[in-house]
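Page 47, continued from p. 46.
Same chain as before, 195 aa.
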Amino acid sequence: MEGAGGERASAIAPIMKWKNDFSRLFQYFLDRSTPHMVERWLGTLVIVMVYVLRVFFIQGFYIVSYGLGIYILNLLIGFLSPKVDPELEALDGASLPTKGSDEFKPFIRRLPEFKFWYAITKAFCIAFLMTFFSVFDVPVFWPILLIYWIVLFILTMKRQIMHMIKYKYVPIDLGKQVMFFLASPNDFSILINRT
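Result:
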């Protein structure tokens, strides 16, 4: 009896070693891709295009696409939301700064950009793999799903934008903001001549 268990362990050992090696190599390349944001998103765009072309040519798997759209909408809400919700923070007594003397709190996302990218890329890869199994090709009338998703997107984004306006935060980082103060029209001409 012990021989059978030892044979099973010796058969599983190479598989576990391969799994650990693959996991380590995958994590290495994932870590190296972190600073290359544009390249990562371009790669994801290629994966999205392949998925869209596959669904278009097969003329099916609309329920998979709908589920993917709902998942991406959920990720987008996490990406656009602050880590600490101002509504809940206001209940605790703390609030966002309203005066110049209040403490500055930078915008920190609930879902960081890298995790957002990774989740979207993984979701499209899984959805692409699902298109190879006919069990996921549930017959539906896709225009209804599309209209429902658009309505859901509009209502969700409206609520998120109203939240942004109410608590005065902008989730998009456009770099360092620089303001120019001009004392006289003469300063404007000096500014133009510098550039």
